[in-house]
Amino acid sequence: MDIFDKFRKNRGALGQYQEMADGYFMFPKLEGEIGPRMKFMGKEVLNWSLNNYLGLANHPEIRKVDAEAAAEYGLASPMGARMMSGQTTMHEKFEKMAAEFVGKESAYLLNFGYQGMVSIIDCLAGRHDVIVYDSESHACIMDGLRMVLSKRFVFPHNDMEGFEKQLEHAQKVVAGTGGGILVITEGVFGMAGDLGALDKIVAFKKKYNFRLLVDDAHGIGTMGKTGAGTGEHFGVQDQIDVYFGTFAKSFAGIGGFVAGDKDVISYLRFNLRSQIYAKSLPMAMTVGAIKRLEMMKEHPELREHLWEIAHALQKGFREAGFDLGRTQSPVTPVFLKGGLSQVTHIIKDLRHNYGIFCSAVIYPVVPKGVIMLRIIPTAAHTMEDVNYTIKCFKEVKKKLETNAYPDQIADFRN
Q: Are residues 224 and 320 in the same domain?
């Protein structure tokens, strides 16, 4: 058999919807300046789909530094991987700032977030070790787990009784192998918006010997008194052994960093395959990351306004009778009853008739018969945006409850 035959017969979980979804429900094109108002298929839409939490993507100060850095260094510099020829004082400057910001001894700048997490897991855990992880962990964590030879135990999401049972299993295994235990969870779970039970997890350190790795992609910049993340929010930042943050959310950039004790980060620097064998983060993006971190530290009003918008949005939805699940963060999931055909009509209605752009999630990410519309508030949104969105969602909810949407897939071309 030709290895490509399987692709033609089975396009995968998402590819099976290619003809009816490509360019609209999947791979849509948002055009114009990044912000709450963008263009979709030539029409202006109120955009609730970008993780631009602090509104930094188009902040004038950020744009100025980005432009100046690109003009000075171009996008090629530095050439090569950091271990060979891509090391700069700017990379080191960011690392020092990031470590101080999240309360760790040392930090290491990564050229990508997703691949960084995959490689961190591969680097930290060996075949004699055991990994215990949350069942709702992000895809980058799951892909990292696939790479390692370690034995793995999964606990039900934020279920501490289940967590301890898996710790007990892990402890028995490492007693025989001589390995150690790595626990992995997230600070903010980006789909449901709830927080990892970090305060409860670290309490088990008194009884069990394990190290904790936290993916705080949605927490860095949004959570905690200073924006240092979910560990700061719970007051347990010092109990997080390896802290991971990406630039794709609050930083509004690309890349990421990992922070922890100096000896751990030193080990990662010399062994992290996704960095050793990949080009260094371009200088323009590194200088931009420094400016973004400075903005987070010096302009707390950005985070404060984000939370004003998030609280108003979530309060308005709840008062209108919407189910927001268990969110404790700016991530705002709106749950409705329905299936694939209904969600296509809802998305088309919101985009074409109400001028609102948001993302939709269906089975298997959520249970069958459930639709989740994921709303991401940012510091760039206004209270007018909030009020208009809640008004429109009320009308959509009424249409759904009165069976106004046909029981067939919506054709976005008409």
A: no
Same domain membership, residue 278 and residue 175: yes
Same domain, yes or no: 261 and 228: yes
Query: DSSP code of 188?
Result: B
From CA 98, how far away is CA 310, in angstroms rounded? 26
Task: Note whether 216 and 267 are same-domain residues.
Answer: yes
293 shares a domain with 163: yes
Structure-token pair, residue 361: 């999630």
Number of domains in the chain: 2
Identify which of 400, 397, 399 has the alpha carbon closest to the alpha carbon of residue 322. Answer: 397
The CATH number of whichever domain residue 256 belongs to comes to: 3.40.640.10
214 vs 133: CA distance, rounded Å = 10
Burial classification of residue 143, based on how many CB atoms lie within 10 Å of its CB (0-12 exposed, 13-18 middle, 19 or more buried):
middle
pTM of the predicted model as reported, rounded to 2 decimal places:
0.94
At 61-116, the pLDDT tens digits run: 999 999 999 999 999 999 999 999 999 999 999 999 999 999 999 999 999 999 99
Is 181 strand, coil or helix? Answer: strand
Range of the domain at 354: 5-53+300-401
Angstrom distance (rounded) from CA 180 to CA 171: 8
Indicate the pairing of strand 37-40 with strand 30-31: antiparallel
Q: Alpha-carbon distance 97 to 94, whole Å? A: 5
Helices (H) and strands (E) in the chain, counts: 16, 14
> Which 3 state secondary structure label does DSSP give 414?
coil
List the chain residues with pLDDT less than 70: 11-20, 413-414
